[in-house]
Write a structure and sequence with these properties.
7-stranded mixed β-sheet; about 170 residues; alpha/beta; 6 helices; about 25% strand; single chain
């Protein structure tokens, strides 16, 4: 599990502050679950957390029970299967997969295959800087008019920034 840094997470949710309240959210590759839990703590209506790793799913279920989260669901399944069968209607989607496995590209493409995103949905994708999402970004945008916030993750924490500025590698597409 490679959780997002506190500083990055704070910056992300500061950007989302006007969109998060009442949002239906999807956390693919949920890992530690911190993005979904943060979304709920900031006023999201619902979070679906998806991960393939059984240990991760057990941890997420225990966190949801520990904090008595009635507005969330944890799914133990492959992200492709989930995206192929989910009901959709998401306002915000977090895609933070293992790096260098093209999972972000595949997930982005699958968002386009069904009516998963609401109009004006926001898709946040965190990738390694060597991964490109340009092709799939255009497919999602063309179909759903979604805004994609893409952060090309750096190998070192010192490459991240703070102070309300967009870090290097962020592209906001409207």
């Amino acid at each position: 599990i490679r959780p997002s840094s506190d500083r990055l997470r704070e910056t992300l949710f500061n950007w989302l502050q006007t969109d998060i309240f009442g949002a239906r959210c999807l956390d693919l590759f949920a890992g530690s679950g911190v993005l979904g839990l943060e979304a709920l703590s900031r006023g999201a209506e619902h979070i679906d957390s998806v991960d393939y790793d059984a240990n991760v799913v057990r941890h997420l279920n225990s966190q949801f029970e520990r904090f008595s989260i009635p507005s969330g669901q944890v799914y133990h399944m492959d992200y492709r299967d989930f995206l192929s069968h989910c009901e959709g209607g998401y306002d915000i989607v977090f895609i933070d997969p293992p790096f260098n496995q093209n999972m972000a590209q595949t997930a982005s493409a699958l968002l386009n295959t069904r009516d998963i995103l609401r109009s004006q949905a926001i898709v946040y994708v965190e990738t390694h800087r060597e991964e490109a999402l340009h092709e799939h970004r255009q497919h999602v945008l063309a179909t759903h008019h979604a805004a994609i916030e893409e952060r090309q993750t750096r190998r070192h924490e010192e490459d991240e920034c703070c102070g309300g500025q967009h870090p290097r590698g962020i592209a906001s597409i409207d």
